[in-house]
Amino acid sequence: MKRLPGKRGEHHYEPQQVLYLIGNINYCYVHLSSGEVIMSCRTLKWFADQWPQFVRVHKKALINQSYVSFCKPAGNSTDTNYIVMADNTQLEIARRRVPAVLQLLEPLHAEN
């Protein structure tokens, strides 16, 4: 894994190494393709602004589209929609974001 130089205690990663990010108040857990999980003092909004190719699927989750295995849409409006990542993690899609996220990931949904 290639870490870019930064201040002491600060990590910089190439976006293509990141599977997804999970927010927890003012911190983030960065899940890397190597399986490593790094806690960052940055917010999801900060990462979303830095990496516009990532998709915000929930107020607590930001995903890298490249690592989406498939979408698991709900059968009806009361069920939860999920995205399954390359490491088999299921991430919930927020109810209000479902139409936009499914439209953006339509090619993946059509394949499966």
Q: How far apart are the first and last residues' alpha carbons, in Å?
A: 31 Å
How many domains? 1
- CATH fold label: OB fold (Dihydrolipoamide Acetyltransferase, E2P)
Instruction: Give a short account of the largest sheet.
Output: 5 strands, antiparallel
Task: Give the low-pLDDT segments.
Answer: 1-6
Report the portion of residues in β strands. Answer: 35-45%
CATH architecture: Beta Barrel
In the CATH hierarchy, what is the class? Mainly Beta
C-alpha geometry: globular
User: Which strand order do you get reading across the main beta sheet?
Assistant: 5-4-3-7-6
* CATH homology superfamily: LytTr DNA-binding domain
Helix fraction by DSSP (H/I, runs of at least 4):
10-25%
Structural class: alpha+beta
- The total count of helices amounts to 3
Number of DSSP strands? 10
- The mean pLDDT is 85
Radius of gyration: 14 Å
H and E string:
EEEEEHEEEEEHH
